[in-house]
Design goal:
By secondary structure, this protein is α+β, with helices and mostly antiparallel strands. It has one domain. Helices cover 24% and strands 23% of the residues. Helix 3 (74-84) links the parallel strand 3 and strand 4 (87-92). The structure holds S-adenosylmethionine (SAM).
Amino acid sequence: MQGFLHDTWLSRQKDEWLTPPEIIRALGPFDLDPCAPVKRPWDTARHHFTIKDNGLIQPWSGRVWLNPPYGRHTPLWLSRIKRHGNGIALIFARTETKMFFRHIWTDADGILFLKDRISFFHADGTCGGHAGAPLCLVAYGDGNVEALRNSEIAGVLVTNNRDGLKISYSRSRREVSHESSC
Ligand SMILES: C[S@@+](CC[C@H](N)C(=O)[O-])C[C@H]1O[C@@H](n2cnc3c(N)ncnc32)[C@H](O)[C@@H]1O
């Protein structure tokens, strides 16, 4: 079973690194996944856009789940969910990058830095191996911060109250068994 080392490697190989379903279950339900596989082993939201639709140019509505394709277009997806203002994104915790400063540190309402290296799945539902870099869940909208807080996914939650001064930290109480199925 082949794991992956980092997101550059990841984007060169393929885009189909699926979120462990227990993460979706812990945070959902979602109204829209704007970047889903054409053939998917499970639903991640009520509605899905695929590469055939180009989710970036479609209208987004409701609560969005975003695990974006990795590569040079990733910032466009983050910009889009930020403007949409209602959803949660799963991305690598590359906290020093331009994208992180432009769309996350400044504008996200909450960030849950995951304690564990989760395992992604292939589009056929088989295990794709551990992520080789730390990951975080980024919330836009207060309801989605609450979803992170209540998910009990292990990690450290940083919330931004938008006065630019206060950041609060809290720890999840117990771990969601997101390594069990892979
Ligand atoms: C990292 S995977 C995430 C899949 C799924 N959203 C999940 O969370 O399990 C990214 C997905 O985006 C799809 N994709 C790539 N470019 C896209 C585009 N322009 N519009 C919609 N989907 C796209 C890929 O086919 C792939 O299934």
